[in-house]
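Protein 1 of 2
SEQ + STRUCT:
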Amino acid sequence: MELAAFFIDFILHIDRYLEAFVTSYGAWVYALLFLIIFVETGVVVMPFLPGDSLLFIVGALCGVGLISLPLAMGVLVAAAVLGDQCNYSIGRYFGPKVFQWEDSKFFNKRAFNQAHNFYERYGGVTIIVARFMPFIRTFAPFVAGVAEMNRGRFSAFNVIGALIWVLGLTSAGYFFGNFMWVKDNLSKIIWAMIIIPGLMVVYGAFKARRDVQAERRLAETPAGPE
C-alpha cells in the first residue's frame, strides 16, 4: 500500500520530484528521463509509468532553465523511438513462437490474420495516435510486432509518432507550464491527461465490441425467403 501511495504521489507531483532530482543530481536527470520513457514504451508490463504528464512537466522545467530544452527533447525522442522499437521486437519474437501452436487454445488463426491485415492497413495511424493514449501506447507496438507489421513501415511511423508526441507535449509545457493557473491546477491537469484518453479508449473498445456483436447477430440471422 505504501508503494502504491508513493507511486500515485509521484505521478501527481512529478514536478516536485524532478525538480528535487535536478537539484541533487544535475545532468543525471537526462538518464532518468530516458529510463522512464524507454521502460514505459518499451516494456509491455510497465504501462503505468508517467508519459504525457512527464513530458509536459519536463517542458515546464525547461521553461525556468532547470533543464535544457533541446537536450531533453533529443533524449526523450530517442527513448520513445527505441522503446517502441524494443516493444515491437519483443512482440515480433514471441508472436510466431506462440502462433506455431495452431491447435492450442492460445491461437486463433482468423484473429491473427485480422490483426495482421489491420496493422498493414491502419498500423501507421494506430502507432501515431496511440502515443497520446496511456496504456495503449505501451501495447500498440507489441501488438504490431505480434501481428507482423512490416518493420520498415513500423519504424517510419514510430519515429513520426515519437517526434509529434515528445515535441508537442514538451513544447506545451515549455510555453504554458509555468502559468500560475497551470501551476495551481497541475494535479487536476495530470488527472485529465490520464482519465480523458482512458475514457476514449474504453469507449472505443465498447463500440468495437458492440459492432462485432451486431455483425455476429446479423451473420447468424437466417435469410428470409426469396
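Protein 2 of 2
SEQ + STRUCT:
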Amino acid sequence: MGGLSLNYFLYLLQGMGWTVALTLLAFALGGLAGFLVMLARISPVPAVSRATAAYVQVIQGIPVLVILFIVYFGLGILEIDVPPLVAAGLSLTAYTSAFLGEIWRGAVEAVPRTQMEAAECLALTRWQALRDVILPQAVRIATPPTVGFLVQVLKSTSLASVVGFVELTRAAQVINNSTFQPFLIFGTAGLMYFVLCYPLSLWSRTLERRLNVGRR
C-alpha cells in the first residue's frame, strides 16, 4: 500500500471498528428514543404532540457538530466530566431520535386511516390497534428510509474526531500527522467509509424497490 505501513493500516482498521461501534450505539439508543418520539408525535394529547414537535425542530435545526460541542464542552463547564465516547454517543442519539421519530411518524400516518377505523370497529383499544394493525404496516413503509438514514448516522460519526474520540477519521488524522501523506491516508479512510456505506445504500434501494413492488 505504498507509504502506508501495516501498523498504520491496522490502526485505521481499529478506528473503523470504533466507527461501527459508535454507529450501532447511536442507532440503537436513538431508535429507542425515536420510537418514543414517534409515539409522542401521534399522541392525541395536543400538549405532548406540540412539545415533541418542538424538540424535533430544534434538534433537526442544529448541526450535529454544535450538539456535540454543547454536550462535551458545555457539560465540562458545569464540571461534569464527559468522556468523548459518551459525548459522541449522546449527541448522535439525540440526532438519530429526532430524525427516526419523524421517519416513523410519517410511516404511521401513511397507513390508510381506514385501517384504524376498522380496528376501532373491532373494539380494539388505541394501543392494540397501533400494535397489531398500524405498526406492522408502518414497518414495511419505514424500513427503506430507516436503512438509508443509517448511512447518514455512520458518516456523522466522523464528527466525533473533534473531541478526540479515535474513530476512523481521527485515526487518519493521527497517522497523517506522522506521515504527511494526506492523499494516501485520507484516501484510504475514504475507501473504508465507502466499504461501510455503499452496501447499506444498496440495501436501502433494494428494499425500497421490493417493498414498493409488494404494495403494487
